[in-house]
Amino acid sequence: MTREKLKALLEVYGRVAIAVYFGIFVLTLAGFALAISFGIELESAKGGAGLLMASWLATKLTQPLRIAGTVALTPIVAGAMKRRRARSSVSPSKSDQSQSKDVSR
Question: HEC profile for the chain?
Answer without folding.
Answer: CHHHHHHHHHHHHCHHHHHHHHHHHHHHHHHHHHHHHHHCCCCCHHHHHHHHHHHHHHHHHCHHHHHHHHHHHHHHHHHHHHHHHHHHHHCCCHHHHHHHHHHHC
